[in-house]
Design a protein that fits this description.
single chain, mainly alpha, 8 helices, about 160 residues
Length: about 160
């Protein structure tokens, strides 16, 4: 529970920049496309480094979000993402404490907590985009819009969605 995540991060710090140049955003397909560079599957790259270029070509070494930003941008990337994730978690905490305790809000808050914990074992991009932190806010807005539409259409009392 503690050894594997920390050793995974260690391998990222060992590989970059000693054995491989920093990726400068190429570990994310969309950012690499915007920058005009080739996408690098960093988790597979680290796996090949750890295993010495194993014949297994589909292995991955997932690590905490700081490892991916170190592979991309070095220590400045780690400092930036740590600050940004702190602000994001603080915003979510404020939303939980100050928000109205409705069914949809509590459900989304529970899902956000699980996704924040997901940052310990995966990249920031995966947690934010694929994991769904951004989509939770979109889903919350859709639920609120649909509930208001139903309430106004059928002249119902305001439901606590």
């Amino acid at each position: 529970m503690f050894y594997v995540p920390s050793s995974s991060v260690y391998y990222y710090f060992e590989l970059f920049p000693k054995h491989h140049d920093f990726l400068y955003g190429s570990s994310n397909g969309k950012i690499a496309w915007l920058l005009g560079s080739e996408y690098v599957n960093v988790a597979n790259l680290v796996f090949n480094y750890v295993t010495g270029g194993s014949w297994i070509t589909t292995g991955y070494v997932n690590a905490a979000f700081i490892a991916n930003f170190y592979a991309d941008f070095g220590i400045p990337g780690v400092l930036f993402i740590s600050f940004y994730v702190g602000i994001l978690i603080g915003f979510i905490q404020i939303m939980i404490v100050r928000g109205e305790k409705t069914v949809s809000n509590v459900t989304i808050q529970c899902m956000l907590l699980a996704n924040i914990l997901y940052l310990v074992s995966t990249s920031f991009y995966t947690s934010i985009l694929s994991g769904g932190i951004i989509s939770y806010f979109f889903v919350k807005w859709i639920i609120k819009y649909i509930a208001n539409f139903i309430n106004e259409t059928f002249n119902l009392k305001k439901a606590r969605w």
